[in-house]
Amino acid sequence: MLNCNHALVFGGTGMLAEATGWIVKHVNHTVVFGRNRHRLERLSNKYSEQGLKVQELDYSNTESLKHQITNAYEEHGEIDLVVAWIHSTAPDAIPTIKRQIATLQVHRQWTLVIVKGSSSHLTNIAFTENDVPENCIVKEVQLGFIYNEMTSRWLSHHEISEGVITGIQSNERKTVVGTLEPWDKRP
Fold first, then answer.
1. Where along the chain do its domains lie?
2. Percent of the chain as helix, strand, coil, to the nearest 5
3. CA–CA separation, 38 vs 165, rounded Å?
4. How far apart (Å, rounded) are the C-alpha atoms in residues 155 and 146?
5. Between the CA atoms of 10, 11, 17 and 20, what dihedral angle is there, to the nearest 10 degrees?
6. Which end of the chain is less enclosed by CB atoms within 10 A, N or C?
7. Could you tell me the pTM of the whole model?
8. Residue 56 φ/ψ, nearest 5 degrees
9. Strand partners, 114
10. Which of 74-78, 93-97, 102-106, 132-136 is least confident?
11. Which residues make beta-bridge pairs with 93?
12. Nearest to 154 by CA among 128, 113, 120, 127
């Protein structure tokens, strides 16, 4: 079970919508940041009565990202959990999130769950985060594919969300959803 008062979710409106719903049900205050207004509104309509707030955000805009994290912190207090599935179009987003939360809350431990997509290069998925603040636990959810020795397919939205939920709940630092090998057999 999750012991969490305040969570931030980046990129939780599409394939992670089911995981976002699970987070909302287990956390007092959840703020979801996304680029797609329609998807944000759909989540808001479904979960706003359970403490969900949504905010449109371009993760590649570092100043706006820092500002939105600060706003969430000021409104709901210290941040316990961050789930981030941020594509390579915003390479500074994860380091910015780590630095900004480390600046805001020096003494409170928090968990960062980074979701790494299966359409990335294997080296990007397997890359381990560095520059981790002392009070931060980094967990990685590595999304692979399903392979049955004959055919392969990408993970479904449900499988991805279930894997992220498992990663959040697990004491392990790495959760692989599906398989990453043999990489050349991916769809």
1. 4-185
2. 40, 25, 35
3. 24
4. 6
5. -10
6. N
7. 0.91
8. -70, 135
9. 84, 140
10. 132-136
11. none
12. 120
DSSP 44-103: HHHHGGGTEEEEE--TT-HHHHHHHHHHHHHHH-S--EEEE---TT-TTHHHHHHHHHHH
| Partners of residue 83 on adjacent β-strands | 9, 113
What is the C-alpha to C-alpha distance for residues 46 and 93, in angstroms, rounded to an integer? 27
Residue type at 64 in one-letter notation: S
Tell me the pLDDT tens digit for each residue of 98-140. Answer: 999 999 998 889 999 999 886 655 555 555 566 777 888 999 9
Dihedral over alpha carbons 20, 23, 24, 29 (to 10 degrees):
-120
Tokens 């997509």 -> residue: 117
Residues in the chain: 187
Answer CATH for 4-185 from 3.30.360.10, 3.40.309.10, 3.30.450.20, 3.40.50.720: 3.40.50.720
